[in-house]
Structure formats: structure tokens, C-alpha cells
Design a protein that fits this description.
About 25% of the residues are buried. The chain starts with a strand and ends with a helix. It is globular and about 55 Å long. The protein is built from seven helices and eight strands; from the N terminus they run βαββαββαββαβααα. Helices cover about 35% and strands about 30% of the residues. An eight-stranded antiparallel beta sheet has the order 4-5-3-2-6-7-1-8. The longest helix has 19 residues, at about 195-215.
Length: about 220
């Protein structure tokens, strides 16, 4: 059996509206993961883990015309599990199903990255994995992050970061943001990344949070 870790960057019908909120579209959410799912037949069901102001996310669930039923299961005042089911476009459902064919097992959780992409691991025969990667529709960008490894989880703390977060931290190192004394500000970093200062700061904050949590295995 083989293992790969991939990142998908869905758009349009391949990315349901609520997914967009989980993957960077809601600043009040710090981190989101898809813990489990059932896309075998409508209605589609998901179990999420969320960190952030999840009460505000509940408001969006209530307002969504695509959500038939939901329940929030608080863990702390900043973390919860969220179950919901409802309708998603056939394209989005088939994209998930693409990674359940033949011998394939998709290993949860699916990390919802704040650049709109998502990252997860797949286990299966080499031919089934290749068929699934090649079967990703043209409207969805796919990147193979790693092949093999000793575990089904990311093999390093850096493996938990989205591509945009890795790029931000790498650029911060290059411009001297982490030097002592500091050689560059977030404004300098933002210019290098060609984004707003607040966006650069947010990418750094989320990346640093993931790295610290990975070091302490939380």
C-alpha cells in the first residue's frame, strides 16, 4: 500500500459556500477540519472540528439554504464539533467520492487551509492513488505534498501548514522578520508577498499557532 498527502484547491461548484467560510472566508474562525463525512447519497453529512468564535458560525448555518439540520457540540468556549447535513452540488460530492474508489482510504481529518485549499492523506494501491489524482477535475488544482512516510499524519510540523502559510513563514525568514533584533516588519513582509499587511499578519499568526501546537502535540 502507498500513502500520499495532497492539497486540493477547489473553486466554483467544487467548493460549497460553507466550505468557503471554513477555508479562510470567515476571519472569526482560527482553524477548521473536516473530521468525517458521508457523501454516498444526498443529503451529504459532515462532522467538523472548529476553533474560533463558533457561535458566529452557527448564525451562518441558520441562514444557509443548503443546510437541512445541524448541531454544535461545544468542547471549550473556543472549540467545538459541528455536525450538519444538507445539499451540495454534485460536483463537490463527486470530488470527495473520487478519493474513495477501489482500495483508497481517505485519512481524516481534512485540513481546511485559510487560502481556500484543503490538505489530507490517502492510503491505497499505487494504481488507485494515481487514478484518483489524475481524476481530479480540471477546475480543481491538485498538489502532491508528500509521498510515503512513516505515519498517516503529517511527518513534520511544517506539514500542517497550508502552502500560503509556508510561503509566508519562508518569506518572513528571508526578509529577517525573525532575526533578533528584527530586521523587517509585517509591512515589509506584506510587500514581498504582494498582499495587505493585515493578511500577512494573519497568515503568520495562524502558521505560528499550528507550529506551536504541533510541537506540543495538541
Amino acid at each position: 500500500m502507498k500513502r500520499i498527502r495532497i492539497t486540493l484547491d477547489p473553486a466554483g461548484d467544487y467548493a460549497p459556500p460553507l466550505y468557503g467560510r471554513l477555508a479562510g472566508g470567515a476571519p472569526y474562525l482560527e482553524q477548521a477540519r473536516i473530521v468525517n463525512w458521508n457523501v454516498a447519497a444526498p443529503p451529504t453529512a459532515f462532522l467538523l472540528w472548529i476553533r474560533g468564535d463558533y457561535q458566529r458560525f452557527e448564525t451562518e448555518l441558520e441562514a444557509s439554504t443548503n443546510v437541512d439540520e445541524y448541531e454544535l457540540l461545544p468542547i471549550t468556549d473556543r472549540e467545538c464539533h459541528c455536525f450538519f447535513e444538507g445539499a451540495v452540488a454534485d460536483a463537490a460530492r463527486l470530488l470527495f467520492e473520487n478519493f474513495t474508489q477501489g482500495s483508497l482510504i481517505t485519512v481524516p481529518p481534512v485540513e481546511c487551509n485559510d487560502d481556500g485549499s484543503n490538505t489530507f492523506s490517502i492510503i491505497g494501491t499505487g494504481s488507485d492513488i494515481q487514478r484518483a489524482v489524475e481524476g481530479v477535475p480540471n477546475g480543481v488544482e491538485v498538489t502532491v505534498e508528500a509521498v510515503g512516510g512513516k505515519t498517516v499524519a503529517p511527518d513534520s510540523a511544517v506539514g500542517r501548514l497550508s502552502r500560503r502559510q509556508r510561503e509566508t513563514v519562508k518569506t518572513a525568514l528571508e526578509v529577517g522578520y525573525y532575526e533578533v533584533p528584527r530586521d523587517a516588519t509585517t509591512e515589509v513582509l506584506a510587500r514581498e508577498l504582494d498582499c495587505a499587511t493585515a493578511t500577512a499578519a494573519e497568515h503568520l499568526q495562524k502558521a505560528e499557532s499550528k507550529l506551536i501546537r504541533a510541537l506540543f502535540d495538541v
